[in-house]
């Protein structure tokens, strides 16, 4: 019995002595596996990083896309743009004139005739808008300004509109190679003093200022020349020449059409914008200008 106990004790001691060695061996194997796995993982990650860097180097567009996705730029809030009213764009820099409605009781018969009725202005506005393909609101502002200016300086508004139509086709930003500007093609550098009270030369493209200055120049030329034809000839810069290449005839033809429109007649809008008339002969008889002036009657002159 004692021998059995002694043998069992020796066997247990042997087993216990061998267990630490086996545990240490297993631990070493596990650690080596972990290190190997980690090494392989790092190798794969390194190769992947090199591949990605190479791709981004040769494809900058992918690099930019990746950068934008990682660092998104905050979207700016949309700005609400509101166009200013047309009247604000057309305001003259000169002091505002008295409105027709407020001063209707103070107008003379001549001024009322020059100002016309709302129906007449509407007819003229609609016809010019269709003829020159200009927006109705813009045409209405130009026509209203022409009528108010005409009443103030005592000149037929339809003559002013006829000059505007032939000179610029109702384009407020027109400019000729010679430097004539705006609706009435005013030579602003020549007549710069007339724009001083309206803000200087930059006001030459202001529709209201351009109409006013152009109308004043036209009025002066007509008064100085003694007839509408002579005034138009000076206005186009042909005073020193024998004829004006038909400019006066074009303006007066448009003026006659506007007169018919303002009287309620149906006038076609598809007629040539620049009515081609034969230029006056170089050697005119003395009676020809007088007869022409008598046939053409412009209100306010």
Number of helices: 11
Order of helices and strands: HHHHHHHEEHHHH
> Spans with pLDDT under 50 lasting ≥5 residues?
92-103, 274-297
Average pLDDT across residues? 76
Q: What's the β-strand tally?
A: 2
Summing up helix and strand content along with how strands pair, one would put the structural category as mainly alpha
- Overall form: rod-shaped
What does this structure look like?
By secondary structure, this protein is mainly α. Helices cover 59% and strands 1% of the residues. A two-stranded antiparallel sheet has the order 1-2. Helix 1 packs across helix 2 and helix 5 packs across helix 6. The radius of gyration is 45 Å and the shape is rod-shaped.
Features:
301 residues; two-stranded antiparallel sheet; 11 helices; 2 strands
Quick overview:
By secondary structure, this protein is mainly α. Helix content is 59%, strand content 1%.
Any chance you could write out the topology, listing elements then pairs?
Blueprint: H1 2-58, H2 60-70, H3 86-90, H4 109-115, H5 118-132, H6 136-153, H7 157-168, E1 180-181, E2 186-187, H8 207-225, H9 228-235, H10 247-262, H11 287-295
Antiparallel strand pairs: 1-2
Helix pairs in contact: 1-2, 4-6, 5-6, 6-7, 6-8, 7-10, 8-9
